[in-house]
UniProtKB/TrEMBL annotation:
<dbReference type="InterPro" id="IPR003869">
    <property type="entry name" value="Polysac_CapD-like"/>
</dbReference>
<feature type="transmembrane region" description="Helical">
    <location>
        <begin position="100"/>
        <end position="120"/>
    </location>
</feature>
<dbReference type="InterPro" id="IPR036291">
    <property type="entry name" value="NAD(P)-bd_dom_sf"/>
</dbReference>
<keyword id="KW-0472">Membrane</keyword>
<dbReference type="InterPro" id="IPR051203">
    <property type="entry name" value="Polysaccharide_Synthase-Rel"/>
</dbReference>
<dbReference type="Pfam" id="PF02719">
    <property type="entry name" value="Polysacc_synt_2"/>
</dbReference>
<feature type="domain" description="Polysaccharide biosynthesis protein CapD-like">
    <location>
        <begin position="309"/>
        <end position="604"/>
    </location>
</feature>
<keyword id="KW-1133">Transmembrane helix</keyword>
<keyword id="KW-0812">Transmembrane</keyword>
<feature type="transmembrane region" description="Helical">
    <location>
        <begin position="69"/>
        <end position="94"/>
    </location>
</feature>
<feature type="transmembrane region" description="Helical">
    <location>
        <begin position="132"/>
        <end position="155"/>
    </location>
</feature>
<comment type="similarity">
    <text>Belongs to the polysaccharide synthase family.</text>
</comment>
<feature type="region of interest" description="Disordered">
    <location>
        <begin position="650"/>
        <end position="678"/>
    </location>
</feature>
<protein>
    <submittedName>
        <fullName>NAD-dependent epimerase/dehydratase family protein</fullName>
    </submittedName>
</protein>
<feature type="transmembrane region" description="Helical">
    <location>
        <begin position="38"/>
        <end position="57"/>
    </location>
</feature>
Amino acid sequence: MIERSVSWFEAALNKAASALIEVSSLAVTWPRWVKRSLVMAGDAMLAVFAVWLAFSLRLGEWRLLDWSVIRFAGSLLLIWFPVAVWQGVYAAIFRYTGRGTIVTLAAAVAIVCVPLVYFYMIRSYPGVPRTIALLAPMIFFAMMATARIVGRYVLVDLFHSQPAVGSERHRSLIYGAGSLGQRLAASLAAERGMQLVGYLDDDPSKKGRRLDGHRIWHSDDIDMVIERTGATRILLAMSDISRSRKQEIVDRLSGHPVKVHPLPPMRALLDGTLRFDDLQSIEVDDLLGRSPVAPLYDLLSSAVSGKRVMVTGAGGSIGSEIARQIVDVVPSEIVLVDANEFALFQIEKEIEAKVAALDTDQRPTIDCRLVNLTDRSDVERLFARHRPQTIYHAAAYKHVPMIESNIVAGVRNNVFGTINTARAAQHNGAEKFILISTDKAVRPPNVMGASKRVCEMALQAFDSAGSDTVFAMVRFGNVLGSSGSVVPLFRQQIERGGPITVTHRDVIRYFMTIPEAAQLVLQAGGMAEGGEVFLLDMGEPVKIWNLARSMITLAGLTIRDESNPDGDIEIVATGLRPGEKLYEELLIGESALPTRHPRIMRAKEQFLGIAELEPHLDALETAVINGDEGGCRANLSALVPTLPPAGASLDAAESGCQRPGGPANHLPGRTVAANGTG
């Protein structure tokens, strides 16, 4: 009998809870003015009830209809609503009720007490005990606070404990059992899509303890915790976590289908308005990037500020970012040059928007020119029209296998596009010409790298011939997110379900963000005096195989291999492509000198004089005009001996291009990788 009664009670309780959840789900969708009106009506009833209860407690009898009760209740309501609106009581989002809401209520009630105390305690009124002026507002405050807390429980803790129909519920662990972790949990408590299953922390003294009812585990037990809790999300609640620590966490999760989210913006946490959908996943950029170094403004501005500046390849990854940053240094004119109409259109609209946001007296003129730099007469007309003072030459073909299959087009564009532009700069009195080069120009076994090395040699020869134009080169490696680079390629392969293709398990590359690379290029240009090769410090090396593993983990997927045949994504080694090196380098010689900037080095390298170089360039141009791929390659090999002639063993060339001691060299002699630039 007793068991039957208990079962009946549990069933009735479950039905009541379900009904409450159903009503709550409808209430959440009502217009805001409807919900606000209902809350105000509820507060009015609570005010009347609080006054009646205060009189009854004070007088020791239940006084229901009494003129004194009605008068005091009317006074309370008359004062309360203007004060509450003024204090923003009804501007709050009720399902996010927290400490801030209660404090606002307390402040509003305290203000209401002032006139009530004056009229009913100091001056007094017949039939109204003096203490009612304090007792009634206190009861009113307690009732409103309780109503809001109960409402939050219904709208959040009860309603959101049930997943929405068709929605996915994420079992989440918060990494960091401190004040930030607690605030993060409170901010996300209103989200139906999240269920907090516990905390992780590096502090062993917190192991086994509880925070707001949730268990704290030590981070060393992360594998066991994920298995036990079924967690699919880990939210990092650490404000000063290093990139290496993020990488360590990601590596630990490689066998689990878990996504990692960094700490969201503090304002969303403090306001209590954070939504689960607002959480960003950790991106590979967060692991590969590094803390920026403050730029030296005089270096940024010396070649740009108040000058006519031209950017070739302005629609490309590096060229477009250089153009963006040039705007901030206030040139007098920006000339954007590209052969790709759509890319040029996009960067034009973006630069126009940036310029429009500047003060009128700081706005440079903008001109976008569709020009093929291999057409010498078009290039001469372009320079004669604009007479740029500083040129950043980022236009180039950069993809190694593509240029290996299209030798003539690659040489024509990279070598003679650069030479045409450099000569036009000389003829029209340009002050500085900065070539955006690549680490693939160092001991290159491929046509793309050899073509860029010939560009460097040509500019070095022009500068040594006594040119009034300062020629300099900036050499660096991979930039994150550039068109055709490995990171977006891996993302696409993951989205398709794999496999991820890596050319070799031992391929090592260096990475830099596009904004940092562009900023360093501008500063290197400010230091250029003539003939230098500037080398950018590319940071720590990354094994591409490990990068692929990290990206799979960041996507919340598992790696399919021999140890985990049921994993989601497989990584496949496809073999080195034609002309590809295991390791890349920045320096041809044996030493590099520091500069004023800690991430820019300077090198002076051997080169051919203009008289010795020109016959080779003439022969190379003849091969290009005749469409002779063999002749192009042979003439490139004559200038760049590490490029094997047609039919030579690529493996032999590859081994001959590696520095003794392998890839572990740092500047000077650092091995750094690139997908090129432009």
